[in-house]
Structures are given as structure tokens and as C-alpha cells.
Amino acid sequence: MKITFYGTRGSIPVCDPNFIKYGGNTSSTLLEFDDGNFLICDAGTGIRKLGKDLLNRKDSLPIRQLVIAFTHFHWDHIQGFPFFRPAYDPDFRIVIYSMGVDRRKQDIPSLFKTQMQSSYFPVPLGKMGAKFSFAYMLDEELIWKGKQVRVIKHQHPGDAYSFRFDLENGKSFVFCTDIEHGETIDPRVVELAQNADVLVHDAQYTEEELKVRRGWGHSSWEQAVEVAQMANVKNLYLTHHDPDHNDDFLADMEAKCQARFPSSQMARDGMSIIL
Ligand SMILES: [Zn+2]
Ligand SMILES: [Zn+2]
Q1: What is the mean pLDDT of residues 222-245?
Q2: C-alpha dist (Å) from residue 39 to 65, 133, 206, 208, 252
Q3: How far is the CA of 10 from the centre of ligand 1 (A)?
Q4: What percentage of the chain reaches a pLDDT higher than 70?
Q5: How many angstroms is it from 143 CA to the middle of ligand 2?
Q6: pLDDT over 80 at 258, yes or no
Q7: What ligand is nearest to the CA atom of residue 216?
């Protein structure tokens, strides 16, 4: 499996020379499985380049079905969707995939139709070109394309979901962003991440910043380390970087994080992990 981060910034994209090293695009990650299946996690502004990269490989793609699974639908996780080029290509089938308990409560098709209505964008969803479908998988444990997936709801304004993939080769990958633990670390997240080879975890704030950002739905890097330690995770990647944290700030944060948990690093736009 190959994991490529196309957007690791939180809240809003940043275009600034001091934000080049870690990148300025909002959340979007491409998971390429060894059997040729793709799963895109979130459609922040990073999905624009992700889509262009996939189109460049169009002729060699084994499957032209692209599944987009959403942790939740806050702006920074959907704002790149109108610029996802495969969505304009009739050769592609795009599946908007909602995994997790309680998901049917949200009317997902109308959410996307609203985002693409003429008040906000010139091209409506139905005129984009690709074939769209909407799929729901409402169990906590599920099998997707033969892969074992576990999805839990975690605390975030309006709710958000964490994913765990257990692969055929015995490796495991956990994606957990836009989470606010509260006074103590959420034990369900620790359980989800237990012994994971890779944990990607929200680390928008420092401990000090978090004190004045209660209720905004995010974690400190210290909490991300705590989860990784409690869950015996092998490799930790921090994500959802605050739009006010420039490269110097994040480099300093990364060094502090590595002092506590050596096999940790900042996820950054363009970075790939092979599992
Ligand atoms: Zn977010
Ligand atoms: Zn959010």
C-alpha cells in the first residue's frame, strides 16, 4: 500500500513562501492498495493535484473507479472537490463513500449538490461529467474490497470519523484527524490505533494554544504523541497543521515531538509512505 499526502494543512489553504516545506493545501490523502484499488480520504484543496496526477496515469490505471471517503464535511475537507479533474471525465466513476455509524443522518447527495449550486460554483454536480454514486457503509467494522476496515466516530463539532485499515500483508494504517480529545485522551481512539504501523493524527495546536481553543475540535501535538505511546504505534505522522504555523514553527514542533517519540514526523504535502 502506498499513502500519499496531498494536503496536510488544517482549516484554510495557505499560499506563502514561509509555508513551502510542509505545504499549504488542506486535507486530502491518496491510498493506493496493492490490488489496484484507490481510496481518497477527504477532498480539501490537495485533491486538485491528486486528481491531475491520477489523470496523468489514466491509461495505466487498472480501475477507473475513484472512491472518496470523508472524515467529515467541514470546508477544509471538501473545498477542493469542485477542482477534482477526474470528476469532469466521463471515463471515471466517482463514489462518494460514507463510512461509519450514524452517517445516513446526513443527506450526502444534497450536501454536494448544494456545494456545486450556482450561487457558489458555475458547474452543477450533475454537469461535471463523471458518473457519480453515493454509498453508505454504516457498520463500525466492515470489509471494503476485501480489506478489513474499522471506523469510529470521534469528538469534533458536527462529528468526524477515524479509519483503520488492516492490510493483507499484516500492516495497519490509522487516519485520525479533526479530533478533540477533551480532558483525557479518548480511549476508543487508543484502541483503534493499537499496535498500528502508521498513525496519522491531528496536531493542529501546541498544548498552550489548545488551552484557548477548546471546542474548536482539534488536538495538540502532545496529545498525538500520547495516543501513539498509549497505543504502541510504530510510526506517528502529525497532520492538520495550523494555518498560522509556518515552516520554522513546524520544524521546531517536529523536533520537540521527535524528542518524545523518535519515530514521528510531520506529514507534509507530497510525502509518500509505503506499507
Ligand atoms: Zn479540518
Ligand atoms: Zn473539521
Answers
A1: 98
A2: 9, 15, 31, 35, 32
A3: 5
A4: 100
A5: 26
A6: yes
A7: 2
